[in-house]
Amino acid sequence: MTVTRLFSGTHLRADLMQTGAADLVVTFDWRVIGRRGFTEMTPNQRFLDAGYDKLMIATSANDWFINRDTTALERALDGVSAQYDAVLGIGFSMGGYGAVRFSRTLGIQRIVAVSPQVSISHAHAPFEWRYREEAAGFDPALGDLTQRADPDLTGHLLLDPLNGADLAHGRALQVHCPGLRLVRLTGAGHPASGLLRAVKRAGRIPGLLLDPEDGLRPLLQDHRSARRGQPDYWTRLAAALDARRPALAAKARAKAADLASQMR
Which GO molecular function annotations are given, in alphabetical order (predicted)? Predict the structure, then answer.
């Protein structure tokens, strides 16, 4: 296996891991609270074992890959997809946005994005309020998906429908890419991999990318099984029920407390 740094900038990096495969998986960095520069991106061995080359896009800040290096990165990556039969992408939250944002440049055909954003700019996502600090330095024109998201992109957007902002992002992304399917993981939180991680079933997510036909059913089954025993699920459900079903909300909150006490 050879590793080539295709781009090395102050703000962005791109490393290509090649084994001579015919297909490529592109992974994107995720938001890291308290980030101070680049963090190590560990390749997912599952993709390499499945016979894919791996392209990893990293950023030095929680900037959604929109910075002074963005256009230079796009120039450096232009044409990479030409050497592959298929190009897939995967990302979590900020990384999910990246998978859509660079889909046209990289020729990405199918993605799995977990709780992605359509933008963090109020110009394109007026419902988004969580990333105010990052949004202050975000260029809405450079981050706009209108001319950069491939309208033929397909795949799955995993999100928690109890999270209103994440649901709004998912629907907005479908406007740009109608072939993206929303997968509702109720009570999973943000990102919507939380309950699967809690029961050590997060591997279902790359599994869905590699096998979209048969990978969804076991992912949903594991999520449904996991949520019954996770206090975070019942807490989120209680918050969603508070306004209209206070009695049920109280029962859900009691269930959360009981489960939490059992885990101590």
Answer: hydrolase activity
Q: Same domain, yes or no, for 88 and 135? A: yes
- Count of structural domains within the chain: 2
Distance CA 78, CA 182 (A): 29
Same domain, residue pair 189 and 250? no
Task: Give yes or no: residues 34 and 120 share one domain.
Answer: yes
Averaged confidence pLDDT in the chain: 96
Residue 263 corresponds to which tokens in the numbers above?
Answer: 């885990």
pLDDT of residue 201: 97
Looking at the fold, whether 169 and 59 belong to one and the same domain comes out as yes
Spatial contact of 55 and 15, defined as CB atoms under 8 Å apart: yes
Same domain for 242 and 220: no
Answer positive or negative: Cα dihedral of 54, 55, 57, 58.
Answer: positive
Tell me which residue of 83, 80, 64 sits closest to 22, measured CA to CA: 83
Tokens of 91: 């990302």
Judge whether residue 264 has pLDDT over 80: no
Cα separations in angstroms, 10 against 7, 18, 37, 67, 73: 10, 24, 9, 10, 11
Per-residue confidence (pLDDT) for residue 25, from 0 to 100? 98
- 104 and 36 housed in the same domain: yes
Q: What are phi and psi of 54, to 5 degrees?
A: -135, 125
Assign residue 155 the CATH number of its domain: 3.40.50.1820
Pull the structure tokens for residue 23: 């297909």
How far is the C-alpha of 155 from the C-alpha of 223, rounded, in Å?
A: 19
Q: What CA–CA distance (Å, rounded) separates 151 from 68?
A: 26
Whole-angstrom distance, CA of residue 228 vs CA of residue 222: 11
| Pair (155, 53) in one structural domain | yes
Domain with 68, as residue range(s), is 2-227
Cα separation, 236 vs 25, in Å, equals: 33
Both tokens of residue 60? Answer: 């030095």
